[in-house]
């Protein structure tokens, strides 16, 4: 038995463009020795940056890179087919693409804004995980790092939020969409346990990414949440990525349906 985690299978990450959590997860897989990685994002330029970054530090990585909208069912299915065609299977699927709300209460939220958030954060996550599960079900499991443990057919990590667990002012659509991701995770975890597939989610607190820093108004809106958390700082996308890799690895072989909070202690306060 080796006591370092290894990723012999294929990793797939949505929302992997730029400098956010998805990009950090993709780079962490490459750094951890995963040799086959598929990345997608709606923004082709930021996706190209993640591709360039991975290939500059790990040039032997086999990549599938395709831009598209994960709220579009036909894109999701054709992208995953592309991954299977080029890389053979899907072992570690990280559904990270997401958007923040406008920072308004329900009475100021338009139906269009509500639908947009839920179409991407909840429905888009479900479209991706449904297709990933279909492919995982048809593949042979890979052995664990520990031969005494059961092999793993696949592991899915959905990126929810601490706001799926606790409320925050003026974020009803976002909070609802992330609570839905946690509930979806638990339900899928129950259904696919017997198939050797684990489904978990990570609930980040305030993390320093383009989502939280792209304009001063958003950063100011989040400042009270940073002050409430005992660690009193924003987290780094790499700190979230490490927890995602743990949940994908066979070190997490008995972790199922969990919502792992990575928030500097916010929700315990
Ligand atoms: N940053 C935080 O504080 C924080 C906290 C909790 C949860 N999250 C969640 O983490 C995930 C990643 O967020 P981030 O902070 O890295 O933000 P980010 O904006 O850097 O990353 C989100 C990525 O998703 C992509 N995306 C948006 N809509 C898409 C769509 N329809 N199809 C495909 N790609 C799309 C964006 O282009 C972007 O690259 C999101 O689901 C977010 O809700 C973030």
From TrEMBL:
This is Oxidoreductase. One of its GO terms (molecular function) is oxidoreductase activity. Pfam families: adh_short_C2. It comes from Aspergillus nanangensis. Belongs to the short-chain dehydrogenases/reductases (SDR) family. Keywords: NADP, Oxidoreductase.
């Amino acid at each position: 038995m080796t006591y370092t985690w290894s990723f012999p299978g294929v990793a797939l990450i949505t929302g992997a463009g730029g400098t956010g959590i998805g990009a950090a997860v993709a780079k962490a897989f490459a750094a951890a020795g995963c040799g086959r990685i598929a990345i997608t994002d709606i923004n082709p330029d930021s996706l190209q940056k993640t591709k360039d970054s991975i290939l500059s530090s790990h040039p032997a990585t086999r990549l599938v890179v395709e831009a598209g909208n994960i709220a579009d069912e036909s894109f999701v299915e054709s992208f995953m087919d592309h991954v299977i065609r080029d890389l053979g299977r899907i072992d570690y699927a990280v559904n990270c693409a997401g958007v923040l709300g406008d920072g308004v209460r329900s009475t100021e939220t338009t139906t269009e804004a509500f639908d947009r958030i839920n179409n991407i954060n909840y429905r888009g996550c479900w479209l991706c995980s449904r297709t990933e599960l279909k492919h995982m079900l048809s593949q042979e499991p890979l052995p664990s790092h520990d031969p005494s443990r059961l092999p793993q057919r696949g592991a899915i990590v959905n990126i929810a939020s601490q706001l799926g667990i606790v409320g925050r002012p003026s974020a009803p659509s976002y909070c609802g969409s992330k609570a839905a991701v946690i509930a979806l995770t638990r339900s899928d975890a129950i259904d696919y346990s017997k198939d050797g597939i684990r489904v978990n989610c990570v609930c980040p607190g305030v993390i320093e990414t383009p989502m939280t820093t792209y304009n001063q108004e958003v950063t100011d809106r989040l400042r009270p949440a940073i002050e409430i958390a005992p660690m009193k700082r924003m987290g780094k996308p790499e700190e979230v990525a490490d927890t995602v890799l743990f949940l994908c690895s066979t070190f997490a072989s008995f972790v199922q349906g969990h919502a792992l909070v990575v928030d500097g202690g916010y929700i315990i306060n």
